[in-house]
Recover the amino acids of this structure.
């Protein structure tokens, strides 16, 4: 036991299940990102790996789905240029205390702040153009050819998602938030009809869940597929726009009040137009609903992070409690987006 992982049990599992395993493990580094599923870099003399596990403790049913993460990335590996090679999945809690999977470690740049300090306007614009390209590519994945046609249930995606996240929110509620209750009512009353679009969706698509080439805008990997499913593509697009409505910096990770043109960053409308052009779509009606829902779902996710922190099950309890403070603001912004 190195204080992070039980290497005495992990090593023989890796040797038996990871093809060409280059052990033994010489160092374990825990990333400070990944509130939901703790993530570790495993260094060996010959190679680096990444291990992503469920957190310990009592968990909500269907949450922390490392098996779903492993399945979707395995299905996409070799078909797209933005998925890390996968190695093995372990659903046996007896190995390190919870389910986990192992994948390649990929060198790349990560941007927590979407203003990307230190880059030129042209470099920033190229990275966000790549972000639009990759998002369109995710939504253009051939579900039958990739074996993912059964990765999500049929029916109206937004009706299903609203029911799911209302249930999750109620299960982790730590006090009444009037704007969350109002937002839930508004979303129910303004639910769009099913337009027949059914694609792979990432579920948490944003710049800090991507790795970019060290010396260019090319995407090396899209990470954190826990919330991926078959659903409506505008959910991912609206989540990007939602993120940008938040305050700038490493806390809000948004672009509110930022002079985007001066920084070389597209406006919301320009990014949406870039995405639509790549997918051959002529605009999006009632986009405010999709953004409002994105705010609600993120508020529900952050409420879950807060509850895990209070229960002592969070990967980073202090950060979890801090993130939980954003829930009322997300609900307020969701209501505003719905009226835009």
């Amino acid at each position: 036991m190195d204080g992070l992982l039980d290497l005495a049990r992990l090593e023989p599992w890796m040797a038996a299940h990871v093809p060409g395993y280059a052990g033994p493990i010489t160092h374990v580094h825990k990333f400070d990102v990944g509130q939901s599923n703790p993530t570790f870099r495993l260094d060996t003399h010959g190679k680096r790996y990444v291990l992503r596990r469920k957190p310990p403790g009592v968990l909500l049913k269907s949450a922390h789905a490392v098996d779903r993460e492993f399945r979707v990335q395995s299905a996409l590996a070799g078909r797209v240029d933005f998925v890390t090679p996968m190695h093995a999945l372990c659903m046996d809690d007896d190995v390190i205390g919870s389910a986990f999977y192992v994948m390649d470690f990929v060198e790349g740049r990560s941007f927590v702040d979407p203003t990307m300090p230190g880059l030129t306007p042209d470099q920033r614009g190229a990275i966000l153009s790549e972000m639009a390209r990759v998002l369109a590519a995710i939504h253009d994945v051939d579900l039958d050819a990739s074996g993912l046609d059964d990765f999500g249930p049929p029916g109206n995606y937004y009706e299903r998602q609203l029911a799911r996240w209302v249930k999750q929110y109620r299960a982790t509620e730590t006090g009444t938030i009037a704007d969350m209750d109002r937002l839930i009512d508004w979303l129910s009353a303004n639910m769009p009809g099913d337009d027949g679009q059914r694609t792979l969706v990432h579920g948490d698509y944003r710049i800090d869940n991507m790795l970019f080439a060290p010396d260019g805008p090319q995407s090396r990997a899209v990470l954190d597929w826990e919330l991926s499913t078959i659903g409506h593509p505008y959910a991912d697009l609206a989540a990007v726009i939602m993120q940008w409505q938040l305050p700038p910096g490493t806390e809000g990770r948004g672009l509110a009040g930022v002079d985007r043109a001066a920084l070389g960053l597209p406006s919301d409308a320009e990014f949406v137009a870039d995405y639509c052009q790549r997918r051959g779509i002529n605009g999006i009606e009632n986009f405010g609903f999709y953004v409002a829902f994105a705010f609600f779902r993120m508020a529900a996710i952050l409420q879950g992070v807060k509850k895990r922190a209070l229960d002592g099950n969070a990967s980073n309890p202090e950060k979890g409690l801090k993130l939980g403070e954003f829930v009322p603001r997300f609900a307020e912004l969701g209501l505003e987006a719905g009226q835009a």
Q: What stands out?
A: The beta strands are 25-30, 39-44, 48-53, 86-90, 100-104, 199-201, 210-212, 219-222, 229-231. The domain at 121-339 is CATH 3.90.1200.10 (Aminoglycoside 3'-phosphotransferase; Chain: A, domain 2). The chain is about 40% helix and 10% strand. The two ends are 53 Å apart (CA to CA).
